Amino acid sequence: ILFKKYTIPFFVGLPLIKNNILKIASNEKCDNVDVQRYAISERDNQMLIQRDNLYFLNKIKEFKFFIEKEVEEKNKPKI
After folding, report:
1. Are 36 and 20 in contact (CB under 8 A)?
2. I want to staple 16 with a disulfide (CB 3.0 to 4.6 A). Which of 2, 22, 63, 71 is the partner?
3. Digits of tens for pLDDT over the chain (79 positions)?
4. Angle at 79 between CA 44 and CA 39, to 5 degrees
5. pTM for this model (two decimals)
6. Is 77 in contact with 70 (CB distance < 8 Å)?
7. Residue 70 · residue 22 · CB < 8 Å
8. Does the CA dihedral 65-71-74-77 come out positive or negative?
9. 51/31 Cα distance (integer angstroms)
10. Contacts of 77 (CB under 8 A, 6+ apart)
């Protein structure tokens, strides 16, 4: 099976993800390590900075969505 890779805004892709039409590539997924790194950098340096990844906040929203989905489906996250 050949998969195509699309770069679209999160708010556009969210309904497609919810209906199992699109999936997030595993190498593009945001995980708890990314969120922790972000939180630590914000704690240590409170100056306003521009992130290297322009879509980082979308990745945080994506992470939140998938965690909420796992909780609703009563799946235990892998640690």
Report:
1. no
2. 22
3. 667 777 777 778 788 878 888 777 766 667 777 778 877 887 888 777 766 766 677 777 777 887 788 888 877 766 5
4. 15
5. 0.49
6. yes
7. no
8. positive
9. 17
10. 67, 70
